[in-house]
Amino acid sequence: MTTFNELNISQPIMKALENMGFEEATPIQAETIPLAMEGNDVIGQAQTGTGKTAAFGIPMLEKVDASQKKIQGLVVAPTRELAIQVAEEINRLGKGKGIRTISVFGGQHMERQIKALKDGPQIVVATPGRLLDHMRRKTINTGNIETTVLDEADEMLNMGFIDDIRDILKNIPADKQTLLFSATMPKEIRDIATNLMNTPKEVKVKAKEMTVENIDQHFIEIPEKHKFDTLTNHLDIYAPTLAIVFARTKKRVDEITDGLQTRGFRAEGIHGDLTQGKRMSVLNKFKNNRVDVLVATDVAARGLDISGVTHVYNFDIPQDPESYVHRIGRTGRAGRAGEAISFITPREMAHLHLIEKVTKSKMKRMVPPTYQEARRGQQQAAADKLRKTIDKKDLQEYHETASELLQDYDSVTAVAAALKMLTKERRNAPVNISSAQPISVKKAQRSRDNKGRSGNKKFYGNRGQGGPKQGGRNQGGRNRKGNYQKRRNNRKPNS
Ligand SMILES: Nc1ncnc2c1ncn2[C@@H]1O[C@H](COP(=O)(O)OP(=O)(O)OP(=O)(O)O)[C@@H](O)[C@H]1O
Ligand SMILES: [Mg+2]
């Protein structure tokens, strides 16, 4: 156990940590904060929800001179929502030191953003596309940046963002500090990363599994056409406080959302095709418990920290084991418990085993709940409401009417009627979700292999000029343009 005191953190930040209720440093914080404060480049890997944001935020803030109204810290994050969230957390941590952090991302008014950048924030959190836009227009001054962080580094280096990241880093002096964080870091991506940095220290918080152990992981083997009914049955029985349902495509997200709404659930969808305003409002409703089920593509898989998410459903199993880790990591955060339930079609069983192998975790088989069980679940929810009302003990004025009722009917019938009225009976409208191709291991495996190869091709293609771990980022692949093969063409919609 390490206290923040032992980490030589300045008073104003100690105060912020206290206000935020952080008592002890998490292992990734304890290990990386000192290294980063000494000025090292750091690659930090630790499970989801274990406080990586503060692990890079604190040392970055410690370096900032608050009297200088110049950008001294830069964080790059893959999605807009994550950029906003990270900026909020760094703002909370840096408030006492008088440090201002802003977020900058696509879909936002350009002129307003330019004005905000000129206004003297010391830290900027940005998505790659919009950041590059500002760099090209010279509307961001990168000359005073001391620390650059790539949050969810593997995701950004992996997908189409790699060229963007290299271009971004070209705008910052090569001898400045670079920090890279993620819960997952496939080896080939780590090699690419190492090449962009100055002899980084690598910290990997040791864990038996890639996933967090306080998440209960289950799978349900089920034909595609039964997935939706199984989902609604499950939601009725387990009545999650907040649930996130991940689906493979934007179209399926829309269809599942419509279907859930038809059946009376408070559900909303989020994906890259929605306007920024809509994305924000959906997420806010979910955070404020005005929506119970968030249906999402992988745009919501990385980094989002929403307290109270009790259940994560993989309506469709993700292609990459890494995506699985991040998706289910939206629950079970900061030591809380969580449930993850993945729907696997019979033809995808081999893929499930691949995920288990890579993540070194096991999913327990669950039988699909029946409609009768779901009805029973709904009644239980109604009975709970009744119990709570009884516990309040303010029923005196209802006693007379209740007694009259019991003269006409027996008590079981009377209570059954009350339960029926309280039960949220679902409209059992048929819902059709358009079919999806099952994921096959072969395809998934190939994609993993390609990932490695394309990374290699790009960076080690010309070994004479510096392979991985051979020095600073200017010697490596950073200044060369290559044809990184985009693995998925629909994966770059977020900045
Ligand atoms: N030392 C601490 N003590 C208590 N809570 C903490 C501490 N550090 C961070 N937290 C809280 O834990 C939650 C998860 O932190 P954070 O979002 O940084 O996790 P993460 O490791 O970045 O996860 P992910 O891999 O999903 O991005 C946040 O709500 C954060 O405020
Ligand atoms: Mg994070």
Automatic annotation (TrEMBL):
SUPFAM superfamilies: P-loop containing nucleoside triphosphate hydrolases
InterPro entries: DEAD/DEAH_box_helicase_dom (IPR011545), DEAD/DEAH_RhlB (IPR044742), DEAD_box_RNA_helicases (IPR050547), Helicase_ATP-bd (IPR014001), Helicase_C-like (IPR001650), P-loop_NTPase (IPR027417), RNA-helicase_DEAD-box_CS (IPR000629), RNA_helicase_DEAD_Q_motif (IPR014014)
CDD domains linked to this entry: DEADc, SF2_C_DEAD
Composition skew (Gly residues), residue ranges: 463-475
Region (Disordered): 433-495
Domain Helicase ATP-binding: 33-203
Xref: PROSITE patterns: DEAD_ATP_HELICASE, HELICASE_ATP_BIND_1, HELICASE_CTER, Q_MOTIF
Record keywords: ATP-binding, Helicase, Hydrolase, Nucleotide-binding
EC number per UniProt: 3.6.4.-
An MF annotation (GO) of this entry: hydrolase activity
Biased composition (Basic residues): 478-495
Domain Helicase C-terminal residue range list: 214-375
Similarity comment text for this entry: Belongs to the DEAD box helicase family.
Protein name, as recorded: DEAD/DEAH box helicase
Organism: Lentibacillus juripiscarius
